[in-house]
Automatic annotation (TrEMBL):
The keyword Glycoprotein does not apply. It holds the Pfam family Mem_trans. It comes from the Bacteria. The keyword Transmembrane applies. InterPro entries: Mem_transp_PIN-like. Keywords: Cell membrane, Membrane, Transmembrane, Transmembrane helix, Transport. It comes from Clostridium oceanicum. The chain crosses the membrane at residues 16-34, 46-64, 76-99, 111-130, 136-155, 167-188, 256-277, 289-312, 324-344. This is AEC family transporter. It is a multi-pass membrane protein. It is found in: Membrane. Signal peptide: none annotated.
Amino acid sequence: MNIMEIVTKIATDSKIVGAIASSVLIILFGYFLRKKEVFKDSTSKIVSEVVLSAALPALAYNSFMKDIDGNALKQAMNLLIWGFIMYVLLIIITKVLYVKFKGDKKEVLRVLTIFGSTTFFGIPITQAVYGATGVMYASILNISYRAFLYSYGYVKMSGLKMDKENIKKIIFNPIVLATLFGMIIWVVQKSLPQVTITEGGKTASYAFLRIDKTAVWLHTPLTYLAKLCSPLAWLAIGCKLAKISLKEAVSSKECWYYTLTKVILVPALNIVALYLLTVTGILQFSHMALATVVIAMATPTATVAAAFSISFDKEALTTSNCSFLSTIFSIVLMPIWIVVLEVIKQLGMFA
């Protein structure tokens, strides 16, 4: 099968096309609603809070409500390890990438490059294309993201030492807690007290904390909350885009440099790194694990990183412009990255 045949096959895959179209069209709808003032200035923030405090934790937790699988467990642990290695490498690499910049601008651009919107932008896309397993992998990858964002990111942006408040944000973040709790249940489920369930005339035993089987009354509302994640996140992104000037963003050379680095170079470097680790047997990654990392790295500026910049008055205008331009490019390039990932899959580069 040649490249054109692979691309044609992808273009006719209703699931992939539907996921891409849904994200783009709902983002544009959010943009339209804000321009028409159906959504107000505060709407994006309110919707974002609902996503971050309720929908995403429910989505992360529910993704672990499945039988334990040896290969999936291996991939999860490899992603956890790679997450911490990756952020250390990005800290080093961005020193080289932004060597021509000086002072606050250099540090701000480095932080914005290291930390993308993996939670708010990446996970909804991953869910739409790769389902619950993709969300599970993305949630595990985000453990290292949160740890570095609220430590290294905070220190660099504030110029202060790590404080207790940010340690609390790392430990007690609802998404992190839901991920850790769900992951623990998933890993140790065979060792937990079992409950016998009869489904379709067949009897099976499940851990009592597997609420998808033992407490459907609790799992169902969490499922409804989880389903809100993608559409609400995309509406909020569209609403946010409507508030920023395109003219200012596109006229900045440094924003173009940052955007191309963030949404093209960083994901590409991850593909190379994961391929080398896989073929050498140091850490082996499946195609879905690779896809999870690439989508996470191809996301635009992280909301929290941008908030740090504005709060500590460090290149706030540059940050706003970078956030806008990188979001536009991420929306445009994400479908291309998904096609690239499918081509890689068809070529058999990852298992």
